[in-house]
Automatic annotation (TrEMBL):
Family: Belongs to the TMEM229 family.
Identification of the protein by name: Pleckstrin 2
Transmembrane helix as UniProt keyword: yes
Transmembrane intervals: 86-104, 116-134, 146-168, 188-209
Cellular-component GO terms for this entry: membrane
Topology of the protein relative to the lipid bilayer: Multi-pass membrane protein
Compartmental location: Membrane
InterPro entries referenced in this protein's UniProt entry, alphabetically: CmpB_TMEM229
Keywords: Membrane, Transmembrane, Transmembrane helix
Keyword Repeat set for record: no
Length: 240
């Protein structure tokens, strides 16, 4: 009201009126900025079930509880199953092996065809190994610093590579042979790969395992359709 009168030239002209108008101007400006910010937050999370019909977020009632849908049932978004995570880890390892052997072929023989090679056994080897490293990560993340964890992952990789290679060799099915390396052991492992394995362990934890654990299934959603609402905690999707 003060602002409108001032714009029309009919408002009071004394110092108190000017001070009040200036205060109202700054208050209106601040409220406008907060309104724009709240609209951005609302548009980012308006798919949730804790939003009211006017876009105002409602806290879940005690009867509903955190992580529950509007009907009182559990939210449909659930963590990936161990088999689903194993599959993603297996595909990651398979892809990395193909790309590594293609890059090796290019560096050694300058082969622009980039032929990458691997074995079907790599799916089981990588999927199972990374799934076990996932368990290590969950136990060690609050106990050991990152570099120590990566060192443990590297030692596990050597143990797993030797074990699986030894078993496969009994059936003449081992797809790798490090006999031509200087620091190999029985042709199944080699110290020359210590740095690549360490770097791979770092990438595996920071980008593969951590992000895979954040993925969620919407079990009630129809294929190709929109997902069901997710439960919120402080404006963020609950991930347990």
């Amino acid at each position: 009201m003060l602002t409108r009168e001032r714009e029309d030239g009919t408002g009071p002209q004394h110092c108190a009126g000017k001070g009040a108008g200036l205060g109202l101007f700054w208050t209106s400006s601040l409220m406008s900025d907060l309104g724009r910010a709240s609209k951005g937050v609302t548009s980012a999370v308006d798919f949730t079930s804790t939003q009211g019909p006017t876009g105002v977020r409602r806290e879940p009632s005690p009867a509903q509880g955190p992580g529950r849908g509007p009907g009182g049932g559990m939210a449909s978004a659930e963590p990936l199953t161990a088999l689903s995570r194993w599959y993603l880890y297996a595909i990651h390892g398979y892809f990395c092996e193909v790309m590594f052997t293609a890059a090796w072929e290019f560096v050694v023989n300058c082969n622009w065809k980039f032929p990458g090679v691997t074995s079907v056994w790599a799916l089981f080897i990588y999927g199972t190994s990374i799934l076990i490293v996932e368990k290590m990560y969950l136990r060690l993340r609050s106990r050991c610093p990152l570099l120590v964890r990566c060192l443990i992952y590297t030692l596990w990789t050597y143990l797993w590579e030797f074990t699986t290679g030894y078993v496969l060799r009994q059936f003449n099915a081992c797809p790798w042979d490090y006999s031509q390396f200087d620091f190999d052991f029985m042709g199944l492992i080699t110290l020359e790969y210590a740095v690549p394995w360490f770097c791979g362990a770092l990438i595996m934890e920071r980008f593969i395992i951590r992000n895979t654990l954040r993925l969620r299934f919407d079990q009630r959603a129809e294929p190709g359709g929109p997902g069901a609402p997710l439960a919120l905690a402080n404006g963020h999707v609950k991930t347990d």
